[in-house]
Amino acid sequence: MLNEKVKNLFNSFRLRKRILAATDAFIVVAAALFANWPLPAVAERINRPELLIISVTCVFGCFASLLFFGAYNKLWRYFSKRDYLSCVKGVVCGMVVAYGFVFLFQRQVFVEFAILHTLVALFGICAFRYIFRGTFVSLVHTGYKEASLANKTRTMIVGAGSAAQMLIREIRNNQADEEEGLKSSVATHLNPVCLVDDDRYKIGKMFEGVLVAGSTTDIPKIVREERIEQIILAIPSCPPKDRQTILDICGKTGVPVKVLPFIGSLLDTSNVGDGTTSYVNQIRDINVEDLLGRDPIRFDNKDIRDFIEGKVCMVSGGGGSIGSELVRQIAKYNPKQVIIVDIYENNAYDIQQELRMEYGDKLNLVTLIASVRDYFRMNQIFKKYKPQVVFHAAAHKHVPLMENNPMEAIKNNVIGTFNMGTLAVLNGVKKFVMISTDKAVNPTNVMGASKRCCEMIVQFLAQQKSGETEFVTTRFGNVLGSNGSVIPLFKRQIEQGKPVTVTHPDIIRYFMTIPEAVSLVLEAASIAHGGEIFVLDMGHPLKIVTLAENLIRMYGKVPYKDVPIKFTGLRPGEKLLEELLMSEEGLQKTKNKLIYIGKQIEIDMDKFINQLWNLKNAASANDDQKAIKALHEIVPTFTTPEEFNRTVKMPAV
Q1: DSSP state of 563
Q2: Quick check: 634 and 415 in contact, CB under 8 A?
Q3: Are the C-beta atoms of residues 385 and 337 closer than 8 Å to each other?
Q4: Which single residue of 134, 145, 312, 386 could bond 337 by disulfide (Cβ 3.0 to 4.6 Å)?
Q5: CA 587 to CA 598: how far, in whole Å?
């Protein structure tokens, strides 16, 4: 009962400030008496009335100065070393001003007394704050620990570095705020039970009141012994391969795993503790990027800046997964103008609003609703805005849907690319960059064949050299998190308790993140001279079923037991393996060791334009059979998935 009353007393912020101010006044007066005691020579010359005047003047001086420096404005749980510095400034400045007034009216100041008085007062005020804060933390956090943590998630934190310590501190602070009714957040539901770290010197020690219980190899045992309900990986700077190893260990425990991602500002602890930097808000579920086990790909931002800065840039399909990220990254490099072209108004609106919120009037942004299939509408746009760089990302990309709607793939992908490329030449565009896919290599479906045809159109236009436009193609594999990607589907299925559906147990894919894909596009564009197909070294491919199993484990569930995996069979047009190069293309290195150039394949211009014209006529007539036949003629490597899957040599995964 007594503890509860004391706790309520401490929880009144206004009352705490008054208590603190009154205590400071008492300390200043007591310090004056103490300073007067060891200086008998001075004491004989300072009578009690004078000592009282000095004390009162110093009380008001220190109070005003401490108030000015914000010493009374901080919640105790956020009190840090910098706030002690505010106290030092407040006391010293307050004493200087106070003794200035004393000298003004009494014409004398005993320097020894003033210095000793200031030092004693400063020590007393700082010491009281240290003791007061410790008492507050003890009462609020420790005295009621068992009761307050009973319904909270027992959490293990992997890593005992600065990020983990700040995370624990924020969790504790947020829980105290909740008790005061100030706010509620994710942190209020966490109970940090223990830490693990591979630094043997940390094992057995306490960090922010939490024990480092062992190393990462001990995680399964500690999870059982401590009844852990959730694991947070809090090593933002952990190398990807080490992170994957730790996640593999965590995945065997059967409890959910979350991560604190690498964010540069996260490691800047200058604002931690004052409520402006949140570690808890950065905690997220496992993404597939965490399971790739490779270092992020680095790009030359200087080349990209030199290429983009001061130019008018158009992005077709600017509201899509790749297109919107292109727009985001282009905006960072100070373009003269960014033009978003998209037929889907909701996507275009979303990225427009996002950029307006981030940049306001600093970014010259134009958002247009238009189809790349409409030659005359696009010609109006080119003539009005005069883009210098065009990124062509508009395309239909869903394999099964395009198998059922082949005319739409041909009209949007093939005819749309031909329109955009032709208009780029006619309107003096400096550089045209087409976004392609690994499905264009030895295609087994209409979508892939249409994208291979797009690549050929770009190479055809580059070979013509009828204008000043430089044409370039960028080709990459599966993009994590894109619209229609398999990973969001897996996550939805796991969260809804449904079986995870995989088409085939042997199907494998190359993966990259959207920012990596877009950075490839931008760097390729910056170093291109025309006619190249840029290909990214994407590391080792991954089995989709392995990816699904790992994702299930990260949710704290057991594959095939808690969450079934159902094999549904290959979809129409689907390969077991997507390739990045055709056999005749070969590879040429660039200055970026992870970016290669596929060798240019000469195109018979007369033959190609006739075949393309036949394809366009068949598509305009909505004749599926003629159109697909024409597509086979243009793309001789277009084959059936059955034939490809029967002969393909699967790489090691």
Answers
A1: B
A2: no
A3: yes
A4: 312
A5: 5
pLDDT at 311: 97
Helix or strand or coil: residue 207?
strand
Residue ranges making up the domain that contains 181: 148-285
Question: How far, in Å, CA of 351 to CA of 176, rounded?
Answer: 38
341 and 381 share one domain: yes
**Domain termination residue (choose one: 117, 142, 167):** 142
| Burial label, 589 (beta-carbon count in 10 A; 0-12, 13-18, 19+) | exposed
pLDDT of residue 302: 87
pLDDT at position 507, please?
87
Tokens matching residue 491: 């996550």
Helices (H) and strands (E) in the chain, counts: 24, 22
- Annotated active-site residue 439? The verdict is yes
In terms of Cβ atoms closer than 10 Å to its own Cβ (0-12, 13-18, 19+), residue 60 is: middle
Query: Of 311, 397, 439, 575, which residue is the catalytic one?
Result: 439
Residues 450 and 525 in one domain: yes
Give the pLDDT confidence score for residue 36 in this predicted structure: 75
Q: Which run of H or of E encompasses 604?
A: none
Positions in the chain short of pLDDT 70: 1-16, 38-46, 74-82, 107-109, 134-150, 175-188, 262-278, 288-289, 291-300, 481-484, 537-539, 578-587, 594, 641-653
Q: Is the pTM of this model over 0.70?
A: no
Cα within 13 Å of Cα(597), Cβ side: 18
Q: How many domains does the chain have?
A: 3
- Dig out the tokens for 340 from the structure: 């978003």
Q: What is the DSSP string of 494-507?
A: HHTTPPEEES-TT-
Buried b (16+ CB within 10 A) or exposed e, 438-472: bbbbbbbbbbbbbbbbbbbbbbbbbbeeeeebbbb
> Which value, in Å, is the radius of gyration of the alpha carbons in the chain?
34
Q: What is the DSSP letter of 256?
A: B
